[in-house]
Write a structure and sequence with these properties.
single chain; mainly beta; Thrombin, subunit H; 36% strand
Length: 286
């Protein structure tokens, strides 16, 4: 997974990644295939966490007075990795995130009030609810939340993985989708596979994957196969419907977000029982 522990520490420790990569300014968007112009992809709305990347996100029905949500990975949770089948809902949190402007400069420190939702089962996502509303963030800092796309991502579509942690943008295409992506004890469904150009690194976990054509968040960056190992930590493998396993050394992956969109209701609450919501429920509700 793209949030790694420091050398010499447990591989499951939640620690700041220090890889010595120089920050970069936002890359200009390359035009996607088709007649529509590419959307301008910048760092605006992305965030840096202590060990990961993320972004302030909204759904189409979000209102200005709704508490803002930050999306990152489940394995970026401040309390450590979640076990298979574990789901966190409405747990208090005081975590802070650094909000970036279009150039990648830190614009503000935002505070979470709770973990609205987190899991590493079927997908790899944490949704923090902030103490600020979408309207307050836009009014104070001039920054709009990124919109989660309610539609399934599209194969061969140009994308940008925007890391608030490293202030770096990775550009490539969606190479395809993985029926099951297995890494250690975890299994994720219908994962996005990048073309080789997106060589994401530790600290890019939780970065929004932005569809260049729509400007919306299509997925959340989460892992990659580093050493060519089979289904081990930091070496996910692909499993098809027949159980065949494929290992792609150097290839990176993300978790789709369209199934989150139906789950977010008024006041940014998460309704896991709402029609179309594709997030796993806590064991007691299954």
């Amino acid at each position: 997974m793209k949030s790694k522990a420091l050398a010499g520490a447990s591989s499951l420790a939640l620690a700041v990644v220090c890889l010595g990569v120089a920050p970069a300014v936002a890359a200009s968007s390359s035009a996607p295939t088709g007649k529509e112009p590419a959307k301008d992809v910048t760092f605006a709305g992305t965030v840096a966490l202590s060990n990961c990347s993320g972004s302030v996100v909204r759904v189409p029905r979000s209102q200005a007075d709704d508490p803002a949500l930050v999306a990152t990975n489940g394995h970026c949770l401040e309390t450590g990795f979640l076990g298979p089948g574990e789901v966190v809902v409405d747990r208090p949190s005081t975590r802070s995130v650094k909000l970036l402007d279009a150039s990648g400069a830190e614009k503000a420190t935002l505070k979470a009030s709770k973990v609205s939702y987190a899991t590493m089962t079927d997908t790899d996502v944490t949704l923090y609810q902030l103490t600020s509303t979408y309207g307050e963030i836009q009014q104070k800092y001039g920054i709009r939340a990124l919109e989660l796309d309610g539609r399934h991502p599209v194969k061969n579509r140009p994308i940008k993985v925007v890391s608030g942690y490293w202030k770096k943008v990775y550009s490539c295409d969606i190479d395809g989708f993985v029926y099951r992506l297995k890494e250690g004890d975890w299994t994720w469904k219908d994962s996005v596979r990048y073309t080789p150009a997106c060589q994401t690194i530790g600290g890019t976990s939780g970065s929004p994957v932005i569809d260049v054509k729509t400007g919306k968040v299509a997925a959340i960056n989460n892992t990659g196969n580093e050493d060519g190992e089979r289904c081990t930590l930091n070496n996910p493998c692909e499993v098809d419907r027949k159980g065949n396993v494929t290992v792609r050394k150097g290839i990176n992956y993300a978790q789709q977000t369209y199934r989150i969109v139906p789950c977010v209701v008024h006041d940014s609450k998460i309704d896991l029982g709402r029609r179309g919501c594709g997030l796993p429920r806590p064991a007691a509700e299954r």
